[in-house]
Write the structure tokens for this entry.
Amino acid sequence: MTLDTTRLNRERNFFATGQTLWLFGYGSLIWKAEFPFHERRPAHIEGWARRFWQGSHDHRGTPEAPGRVATLIESPGAICQGMAYRIDAEVLGPLDVREKNGYLRERVTLHFAEGDHAEGLIYLATADNAAFLGAAPLDEMAHQIAAAHGPSGANRDYLLHLADALEELGAEDRHVFGLAARVRGITEA
Ligand code: SIN
């Protein structure tokens, strides 16, 4: 797969045009919702774990020194908490560009905090995309994140904004909170 998934995503139309659809954000889409939406609701998805295993060459790093950003890894029994947005389908065009470094639109079932559920979309970066970095020890990932910068800013800020947003949601996430504590330790030392 190429480093630009924009064209592939244009063909991944899982929902009828002319209707609104639910988008589930689990990374920057939680705390950086710079797109129009009709409503937003805390939600979770089941069977997925959030991991900083995706490389960022375009936002939070560079091709020479990629940062690390969130993707989801299939993990039976896991719960990933985030934010659901009800959007117009046209909003996906600009989101495809924002998420172009390896993320593909995928269908998921969203479970809202109030107990109801709906079909929706996530942007998912799987292990076969060119920017995927995969697992590494937390300390190693923390040093990479503490050092990386890209056109959208410091990789550290992406992680710490996400950790703050998850805390506000009352979400459990040992991976994100563990990384955030390490990065704070490195950059505040
Ligand atoms: C998401 O936030 O749902 C996708 C990954 C990202 O943009 O950080």
Q: What stands out?
A: The chain has one domain: 6-188. The beta strands are 20-25, 39-56, 67-88, 104-112, 117-124, 149-150, 153-154. Residues 155-169 form the longest helix (15 residues).
